[in-house]
Structure formats: structure tokens, C-alpha cells
Design brief:
Oligomer: single chain
Protein name: AAA family ATPase
InterPro entries: Cro/C1-type_HTH, Lambda_DNA-bd_dom_sf, MLTR_LBD, nSTAND1, P-loop_NTPase
Pfam families: HTH_31 (PF13560), MLTR_LBD (PF17765), nSTAND1 (PF20703)
Largest sheet: 5 strands, parallel
Transmembrane segments: 445-468
Keywords: Membrane, Transmembrane, Transmembrane helix
Number of strands: 17
Length: 754
Amino acid sequence: MAPFGPEDSTSFFGREPMLERLLEQLATAIGDGGPRVLVGASGSGKTSLLNAGLVAAVRDRGLPGVSGSVGWPGRRFTPGADPLQRLVNALDAPDARDLIASEPDHVTELAEAALSRRPGETLLVIVDQLEELFTLCTDPTARTAFLASLAALAAARDNARPLVLVVIALRADFYGHALAHPELVAALRDRQIPIEPMTSQQLREAIEKPAAANGWTVADGLVDIVVNDLGSDSAATAGALPLLSHAMWSTWGRRDGAALTVAGYRETGGIAHAIKQSAEYIYSDADQAGQDALRLMLPRLVRVRADGDADTAQPADRAGLTRGVADPDTAQKVLDRMTEARLITMDHDTVRLSHEALLREWPRLREWINIDRDWLHRSQRFIADSREWQHSGFDTALLYRGSQLAAIRDRDLPTDNDPILADTVATEFLTAALRSENRRNRQRYAIITLLGFLVIALALIVVAATVVPMDRRAELRAFLTTCRAGLRPEDVGVPAYGVRRRVPGLRREELAMLAGISVTHYTRLEQGNTTSVSTETLNAIAAALRLDSAGREYLGNLIHPPKTVALGITEAHPDLRCLVDAITDVPAFVMGRYGNILARNRMTDLTFFDFSAVPPEHRTFPHAVFLYETARPWYPPQDWAEIAFRAASYVRLMWSRYPGDSDLLAFISEMNSVSADFRRLWDAHTVHDGPLQPHRFTHPQVGYLDLSQQMMRLVGVDDQALVTYSVTEGCHTREALRRLALLDTPARVALPTA
């Protein structure tokens, strides 16, 4: 599963057409300059193409039509957390980081120095895995300086060959991140090299030719089986090369003499299961100490995202990786076995996953990551922010404070298993933040004392005029009871033994058994006692109740309520407003915490109804669903029921996320008092966060519409969402929306009589 290196060029087959195209592009760069960007899916073979293909080809035969290019020197690296340091290291100038950070153009002087003993030659700089620039590097200034340095290196020179040819490899799902940087836009537009899926014939060559070159034979029919297992869908096979590599390497381990056999291939689990089978075998064969060590260490090799998208591999130093392991010798043994199976790669001081395919193909690792996701993301973010604080010269404005600091300060982790305490800079960052927070608290104390009685009196008046906050203990009891009642024993593998049950769903003791906790502990929790509930216990209960991500978050908010009094937002974020204004052919709006519409385009009013005809405080999605009578007849009853369910469920999730928002509390009180439908759905204790698919109704002016809804949130702006819609080009709905856009008057709104 590990990529090919330059030393493997004699076993690298099947990519000859792509290699020739890449070499021709670099030959062209001799004249026009500029970096070349190799773009492909994860697992499409970018690294192997660069190493065993490009580097080896330049070493052995040079660039086509470019005299004297044989043996040109090359430097390969990935950006890592500090891309500028990686770059100057590659140019043999490790002390020059600060120089190019402030003046990127000076990087050409470093390249000239690196080539001083090789006059007339050009340096080949390969930046692999550019996505690390967006996942591991958190300093936007460093990102900009790094990209500017690459552009300066690759720039064409008058009447002379360029000093440097720059090749960048980018994972396709980070294309949008790259386009956000002006330094990369021209390269992606004019000098992009998409890596194509391998054809069936190329896959055959990738299997048969390395075997022949090494004196092995391939059993009749084996190649046909492997190619068939890979499938004919180019989208599916584009990222399947690590699966092929691992399956064939495992088959070689089960060879019969010098023959690769069908039986050996079948024993590996084939393309679909070879990686999973190898990893699971090592885990299952380890003793308890070894299993515990793998459980602790492997999630540390993953850079996670809070939403679960785009998880990526990240390197870890050996000392940090094994911190907290009870038996270091056992930990080293299981790491050695993972290395022998080519699942991880170790060098003298770092460890990394051999390929991110392990994240996709091993369910046990995915489960571990999902269980630890919240804390992994929070601690990784904190460690990254500590680096930015260090690079800024310890700017106090970057220190955590308030609820952000409290979430780190109040973490419940054993010292030996705390990644923050394992990191020197992060520990200093935390200490500085705590000291700064203590100083602010002392400075505020006198003012708070003087104004305390006034604030309390004012708060009592406000609460009395709006709504009494809801009882979280009662909500927790109701939520757990409702979820438990919705699970049938036979659906979760609990034997019913033919006994007739007086109440539906699971009993408390059955739920506790599924969660792996004591009945007493669970009973106390269901009764509203939330003390000493660890993250592990919370995750176990959520899994036993089969909660989705929204349900998991809601349960966590009830057990560990957010500590801040969050104020409601009444204006759309400027970036979201710009997006809404730019969308003219479909409805688009910005939705706030309780479904309040903070910004909208003209098509929103034309498609649904004229929101300007109602008071600003009633311009909300729940008001539209439960109180306005205009739109309900447009929808089939079952679709309207789903819309109403999601509206109430979304508000309940927002209530748990922002418990101190008085506007939100008042809104919930109002809706419960004026809408029986809302009250009924609110009492169902369901939560939801996501788009409605599909959104179908019959518009009175243009007829039937079939829309697909999308929701998007900006990073760091989790209480607003851009809601927009898409349709298939050429369908009736597209034409209907075009006719709708020509209308002058939106549908009329029937205001509530209450």
C-alpha cells in the first residue's frame, strides 16, 4: 500500500502514457515557466507516478527534447505543518525560513546557491500532498508565503532556462481549497495535469510486468479476477490503486513457490477486503495490551474534521505517538507488525499511515476515530493554534478565552493520554491563556460586584417578560426515555424470550447492557444526574440508542451544557450574504438559529411566498411551516409532515446548542403557545440538522417543482446556514423556475389569525 519510490522504477508499469504527458509538460515549462499541478483522487497513484515515474525518468533519460537534462537534481517533500521550513530544508538553507517568510522572492537566491556546484542545470522541486498545506499548516501567512515562493522559483527567465521546475501534486477533493489562493489559480487553469484512471490493459500490465521482472509467475485467470474485482467504473477505480497494491503484496506473501495463485489471492480477502483483513488480523492476534496500544495510537495518526469529511493522515513523532501506552515494548511490537504489513511507515523519528486508504477500508479504525472525533478535532485545533501563537511572537490576542478556553480547561482525560500536555508549545499556550483569563477575571470583579444587583434585577424582568428556561434534567429524562421506547429488542439483538412487555422499547437494564455500563449508572443518568459522565460513556449510550450525529450532539449538550450565554444573531454573515446575492436562478437564503431568515434572494419570495409581507420577527422557517396557510395545500400530506418534523427538530437542536439565547427561548415559547402542530412535534423530543431531500410541491403559478435542497455552513460560523436549491438541467422544474423569475408578484401570504 506504500507508494513506489525512485528505486522501484524497474517494477513500475501501467502509467507510461501519464508519465510521458508529465514529462512533456515539464519540457514545455522550460520555455513558459510556472508550476505544473498534478491533480487526482486519493489513491490514484500520484506519489508513485512522481517518484518511480518522473524522478526516475529524469535521472535516467531526462526530459524529451531538452539537451543536458539527464540527471538533473531533484528535491521532494510534503508541506507538513511548517511548509516554509520544509522548502528551505529542500534548498539546503535551513536557516533561511524567516527570510522567505517576509520576502518570498529571495527564494531564487537559495536555489542559485543550491545549484552553484552544478552550473547549467535546473533543479526539479516536487511538492507532494499539497493538501497538507490546508490540513496541517494553520498559519495563513505561511501558506501565502510558501505559494509565492513556489511561483518565484518556477517563473520563466528571459533568454535562459528557469532555475527550477516545480511540480505540485494535489488531492482532488482539496481543489476548492487551492482555488481560494490566487497564487494557484493560474496554474490550475492553464497548467493542470489531471491523473486519469488506469485502463484494464494498464492494470494488467501493472500486475503482470512487475511479476515477470522479478521472476514470478501469475496463475492463469488471476489477472482477470483482479481486474474484474476492481470494476469497470472509472470513478470507482480512480482511487483503488492502494487496494490493488496491498492485495497483490498480500498475495505474494501467500505465493506457492514463485507462483502467485488464485487461492492465495482469495485468502487475502481480495481487492475489497485485503487491507481490512490485514489490519484486523494484527489487531485480533495481539494481546489485550497490544490492542489497547493500537486503540490509543492509531487515531493520533489522523487529522480529523469536526463534520467527518476529508479526514487525512498526519505524521506523529514516536515519543508523542506512544505517550500514555501502558506497555511501550508491546506498543513497539504492534507498530512493527503494522509496518511489516505495509499499513504504516516508520522512519527514525516519525510514524505515519502508509496511505489514507486504511481510513476508508478498516471499519474498526473508522469507529475509533468517530468515537474520539470531538476531542481529536478540538485538541488538534488547539495544538495548531499554539503554533500560530508561537510564530506570532506570542501575541496575547491569540490566546483562548471564555467558553473556548473552558472547553480545553475542563477536559476529562488521563494525563498520560492528553495530547495537549504531550506537546510543549501547546502546554505553554494553555498556561498563558489560563493566566490571562485569571487577570481578566480579577479586573472584572469590582465592576461585576457593583453592577451585580442591577444585572440580576434586569435579568429577572427579562425572563418574566419572555419565558422560563426549560428544565434540562427533565429534557434529558424525556429524551432518553423516548429514544429507548423507539428501539425494539429484536432490532438491536436483545432476546425477547417471548415475554409480553408492558411498555414498548428497551428496558433500562437492556440499554445499559448494550452500552456496556452499569444499570445504576444509566438509571441515574436517565433520572437527570449528569455528574461523572465521561465522553466514552456518552458515546456508548449514543451508539446503543443508535443516535445520528444530531442526536449525539443533542445528548452531549444535555449532559454537558454549553457554559456561555450565547446571544442571538440578527444579521447574516457578510460572506453568506454575498453568496445569496450571487445566486439568481434558484431560491437561496441564510437561516439563523431558530430558522429565522437573515437574508434571501428574490427567487425565495417568488418560489415560496413574499416574506416582506410579514413582520420581521415572523420571517422564520417554522412560522412559514406552522402558521401561514398559503403554502400547505401545495405539498403532498406526507411531504408536509416531513417538513414540519424537520423544522421543529432543528429548533430543538439549536436550543441545546445555544441555551442562553433569550430570543430563541421566547420563540419556542411563542410557537408552543400558538401552534398545536409545533407543540406536538416539540413534545416528540426529536432532533435534526440537515437538508430536506427532496423538496417537492405544486406552485400555484408555474406548477410542479422538484427541488434538491443543500445546506452549507462556513467554518467557525455554526449558527448560520446557507440554504439553496438545485435542479437537473433540462427538466420541467428548471423551465418552471425560469418562468417564475419573470413574474413581478410573489405568492400572497395568508397571515395567521392568532
